[in-house]
Amino acid sequence: MFHQKERTTGDPEATDEAQDRGHRGMRLARTATAAVHIDASPEEVWETVVDIGRQTVWSCEAAGCEWISPFNRVAPGARFRGHNRRGFRRWTRENEVTDVQAGRILGWRTLPSRLYPDSTDWRIELSAEGDGTEVRETYQIRRLSRGFEIFLYWFNPGHRERGSDLDGDLRRLKDCVEGVRG
What separation, in Å, do the N-terminal and C-terminal C-alpha atoms of the chain show? Predict the structure, then answer.
């Protein structure tokens, strides 16, 4: 079963000035969560989740990932480069692993840069449930200037609301993990 929770849109700190300029409706959802049950052990799901090279199989945007030297595995502080695509759009982001609890939690964030001044936290949580695993994926925008938000709103409309993306990612992760077992 797929479900989305905790979706919010808009920015409670938006200024009246920005709203007066006619940008009121040009908001990205700041957070989304989706969950799925996978018929596999948390250990089996974990092996797929932490293999960043396999993200292209189950992520709707990942076109490739590689560790940034000297890192070569999931660990707090490890960095990796994610190459993304959506339609004709292509971009690359540097990411940092923020939380690892083996078999349970993987967290990372996009690092702000000159070209991409925003930052988003991503988190995948696994928990044993019956004979399988409940997987929950969450993202939360932590840093986003109003100007960059308006740019993303028009340049990458798929980022206006990400809940359906997370649902699709988890469906593909389920197929990937269960297909390996089947």
Answer: 20
Q: Extract the tokens encoding 95.
A: 């990411």
pTM of the complete model: 0.84
For residue 53, the tally of other CB atoms under 10 A from its CB is 12
Q: What is the 3-state secondary structure (H, E, C) of 109-163?
A: EECCCCCCCCEEEEEEEEEEECCEEEEEEEEEEEECCHHHHHHHHHHCHHHCCCH
Q: CA-CA distance, 45 to 131, in Å (whole number)?
A: 13
Domains of the chain plus CATH, in order, are 32-181 (3.30.530.20)
Among 168, 137, 180, which Cα is nearest to 48's? 180
Position 25 confidence tier, pLDDT thresholds 50, 70, 90: confident
